[in-house]
Design brief:
This protein is mainly β and 70 residues long. The chain has no helices and seven strands. It binds zinc ion. Zinc ion binds next to loops.
Length: 70
């Protein structure tokens, strides 16, 4: 997986992660901002607030557990 980070403004960026939707396995759009991480699936419209961790360059881990869905 080699996601491309798109910087929107200072402190805010978007990221598309293919095959990452926990519901349908579709591509997830992530928005990372000072308020946290929001995820949106364009296929099934799943919206979540995952924790996003970057282990190393280009390697991300999403954790949808233990968080209420928006
Ligand atoms: Zn989905």
């Amino acid at each position: 997986m080699n996601p491309e980070l798109r910087v929107i403004s200072e402190g805010t960026a978007e990221l598309e992660l293919p095959h990452s939707c926990p519901t349908c396995g579709g591509a997830l759009e992530l928005r990372i901002s000072p308020d946290g991480v929001r995820s949106f699936c364009g296929v099934c419209h799943f919206i979540g607030r995952p924790r996003l961790q970057q282990f190393e360059e280009g390697t991300f881990f999403l954790d949808f557990r233990e968080l209420p869905l928006a």
